Amino acid sequence: MIMELLSSITFFTSTLIRTFLTQNIMWPTFLFTLGILLSLPFKREKCNFILSLFSLISCILIIYLSLRVLLTGKILYFEYVIYRGSIYSRIFPFSKVSLIMDQLSAYFTLILGIVGFASSLYSFHYMTRFYGRLSLRLFSFLYLMFLMSMYLVLISNDVLLFIVFWELTTVSSMLLVAYERESEVARRASIKYFVLANAGAICIIMGLGILVLLTNATSFTEIGQKIDIISENKLLYYTVAMLLTIGFSVKAAQVPLHSWLPDAHPEAPCNVSALLSGVMIKLAIYGLYRIIFTVLQPDIYWGLALAVLGMTTLTFGTMMALIQTDSKKLLAYHSVGQMGYIVLALGTGVHLLAQSSIEARTLGCIALIASLYHTLNHAIFKGLLFLTAGSVLYRTNSRNLNLLGGLARAMPITFITALIASLSISGIPPFNGFVSKWTIYVSTLSTLHPLLTLGAVLAIFISAVTTASFVKYITSIFLSQPRIEVKDVSESPWSMGASMIMLSLLCILLGVYPLAPLSIISSVVGYVSYINPECIMSSIILYPSIVLLKPGVGITTSMSITITALLLLILTLTTLLAFSFIYKPMRITATWFCGVLARNVKYTAKSYYTEFEQSYRLMYSLRKVLYEKIVNPLMRAYPTVTRRYDKIQWEYAFSFILALYALSIILMLLFIRVMLGW
Amino acid sequence: MVELELTLLGVIVSLFYSLILDGLERKIRAKIQSRKGPPITQTLYDVIKLFRKELLIPSTAPSMFMFAPIVSFSMIIIAYLILPYGFPNPMGFYGDLILLVYLIVASTILLLYGGSSSGNPYAEIGCSREISLLMANELIIALVIATIAIRYHALSLNTVLASLTISPSSILIVLTLLLYIYIESARLPFDIGEAEPEIASGYLIEYSGPLLGLTIYTHILKRTLLYLFTSVVILGLVDNIIQLSDIISRFVTILLFVTLLSILYSIISNICGRFRVRHAVNAVRAIIPLPVLALILSFLGL
Q1: Does the first or last residue of chain A, that is N or C, have fewer Cβ atoms within 10 Å of its Cβ?
Q2: Which of B144, B190, B284 shows the shortest CA–CA distance to A612?
Q3: Is A34 helix (H, G, I), strand (E, B) or coil?
Q4: ipTM higher than 0.85?
C-alpha cells in the first residue's frame, strides 16, 4: 500500500512537472513557485533581488500570454482529468483540474501583468525600508503567493479551484496588510478585511454551490451550457444573482460593504497597496463578468441593481475621500469611488444587453467597453498614485497631508507622474481617465432610463469632486510650504522612478491613442456578448482621446473634418507660446506673505473644503446612519455568531454534529423539492 | 464647407470681441460709480502691455507655474472650436455638450494648479474656495445636461440649437443656465476665489507680466464662452419665434445675446457685495431644486 502510494506520488509529481513545462499557461505559476522556493534560503538583498527578478519575469510572461490570447483569439486551456476510483484521486481532492485563459480572463491577467510588473520593479528599492526590521523572506513568500493566487483565480475554470484560489488571495493579501506587524492599526485593519472578505466568500460559495448542485457540473463552461434549468426558475435565478452580487461586492468594495478597503489598503506596503487597489479588487469585477455573461444570462433587473449599487458607491466613496488628510487613505477612498464608476457602467451594460433590440444591445456593448476600459485605466492610475505616495513615504516617512509640502522641486519625477495620474483620475483630457469616463457618461445618458440618467448626473458631479480632492492631494504634498523638514529630501531611487514613469506613459498613451486598447476590449466584449467585435468597432469612431458613437445607435452625428488636425494646430500654438515664454528675460523672485517671506506658512489640507463639507453635510450624515444602522451591527454580529459557533463546536460537539445532520437533511429536502419543482 | 470657414471666423471674432466686452463692462462699472472710465479698448491695451513686460517667477515655484496657464488657454480655445455660432458646427459631434463642460472645468483646474504652485498660501486659499464653488456648480450643470438629454435626446450642441422648443423644462433649463454661468464666471457675489481686499487676487497673486496677461485673457475668454453657450441655448429656444434663416444674421443675433448678457451681468455684479465662502456655497446649493424640477418635468415629457 505504502509502496503504491509512494510510486503514485512520484508519478503524480513528474506528471505535474511535465505538464507545467509543456503547458505555457502554467509557466507563470511555475516561476512564482520557483521564486518562492529560491528566495526562502536568503536574507535581505539577495531575497529581495530574487523576489523582484522572478515576479518581473512572470509578469512579462503573463503580459505575453494574455496579449497572445487577445490578439490572435486562440484560447489557451489546460485540463487534467483524474478518474474516480484511481489512486490519485485519494491524494488529489479534485477530480478534474481545468484552467482556461479566454479573452475575458486574458484581459484581466493583462491588467495583473502590467500593474504587477510596475509594482515588482518598484519593490526592488522600496523594500529596503524594511531591512533589519521585518522579514524579507516572509514578504517574498506572501507577495509571490499573492500574485500567483490572483493569476490562478483569473484562469481557473473550475468552481472549486476558483473558490480555493479566491480564498488564497484573501489570506495572502490579508497577511500582507498586516506585514508591518508592530502597528496595531495594521493588525486591526487586516482582521476587519479578513472578516468581511470571508462573509463575502460565504455568499459566493453558496451562490456557486446552488449552481453546481442544480446543473451537476463543476466547471464554468459546463454550468453555462446547462443553465436553462435556472433561467426558467426566476426565484432561483434571483437568489443566485443576489448571493453572488453581495459576495462579489465585498471585494469590489461596494457601499455598504466597502468599509474594509479604506482601512486595509493604506496599511499595506505601498507596492502591495498598488496591487490591492489596482488588481485585487478587480477580481470581483472579473467574477461578475464571468458569472453574468458566460455562466448565467444578463437580466434587466440585475443590471439596474448593479447600476444603483455603483452610483451609491461612487457618490459615497468619493465624498468620503474629499475629507481625508492621510495620503494613502484618500487614495483608498477614491478606489471605492472609482469602483462605483466601473460597476455603474457594468450594470448599464447588463441592463441593455438583456434587451432584444439591436440598438440597445449595441449601446450595451459600448457601456461594457466603458466599464472594461475604466477597469484598465483605474488599475494604471491608481497603481501609479499609490506608488507615488510610497515614493513620498520612502523619503519623508510621512503620509500626513497637513504636514507635507514643497516636494515638487526635490522630487520632480514623483511630482510629474503624480500630477499625470491625478489629472487622469480627474478625467482631464487628453489623459486616459477622460476617455473611459466620457464613454461612461455618453452610454448612460443615451439610455434615457431615469435611474441610469441619475447615475450619469452623479458621475459627472462626482468627477468634479474627484478633481477637487486631487487638487488638494497635489498641492498639499508637492506645492505648498512644508511644515516638516524636507530640505535634504532627494528623488527616489531609479527602480521606483522607472516604474512610475512606465505607468505614467501608459496613462498618456491610453488617453491619446485609444485605438490600441479598444481593439483589445472590443474582442473581449464581443466574446461576452456574442456580438461580432468588428460590428462593435464599427459603431464607434476613434479620435485622439475621444471615442464617438456612430449613427445607428439612435444618434446622428456629423463629423466631417477630423479633430486630429485641429488638435495638432492647438498643440503647435501651445508649444510656440511656451517657447516664447521660456526665452523671455526671466527673473527669479522671493514669495512674500503678509510682509514676511512665505516660509512654513501652509494652508492645511483639513481646511481646504470645510465650507463645502458643511454645506453638503447631509451626505456625510447619511453615511453616519449607514454605519450605525447597517455596517457596525454586521461587524459586531459576525464575531458573536462565530464565537457561538465556536462554542458549539468545542463544548457541545455532540449537539453540533446533530445540528449539522439536521441542517443537511433540511438542505437535502429543499434540494429535492427544487429538483421536483414546486 | 462654408460652415467650417464661418465657424473659424466666428472663433476669431469671438476671441477679439471678448476683449471689447470686458472694456464695455468696465465702462458700465465706471458709469455706475459716476466715473468717466477707461476707453472701451482698454482691456486689449492691458493685455498687450502685459505681454511685453518682464517675466517674474517666484523662487518656490516649479515649472508647472509657467505651463499650466498655457495649457489652460489652449483648452479654452478647443472649447471655442466645438461651439456652434448660430449654425451647425461641422466640428460638433455627439457628446460635445459634455466635452464643453469638461473643457471649462479642465481649464479652470489647470489655472488653479498653476496658481497654487507658486507656493503662496493666499493662492492656496483662493484655489480651495474656487474649487468649492466649482464642485457645487458641477451638480447643476450635470442636471442640465441630463435634462437636455432626456427631453430632446440631444447630447450635442448642434442638436440643442436645432431641436429646442419652448416647454416648461426648457424654460427652467435656461433659467438654471443663466444662474450657472453667473456663478461660473466668478462675478461679484461669487468672486470669493480672487477677492482682492481679502486674499489679494487669490490664485493670481504671484502671476505677473505675460503670464498674468495670459491668465486674464483666459479668464475673459471663459466668461465669453459661457455667454456664447447660453446664447446658443436661448437661440435654440426662440428659433421658432424669430425665424432667422440667414447664417450671418443668426451669428449677429448670438453676439447680440452675448452683449446683452454681459451688460446685464455687469450691472448685477456692480450692485452686489461679496459673499462669505459658506454663503456662496449655500447659495449654489439653493439653486439645485430648479434643475431637479426640470429633470422631473422632462421625464414626464413636458
Answers
A1: N
A2: B284
A3: helix
A4: yes
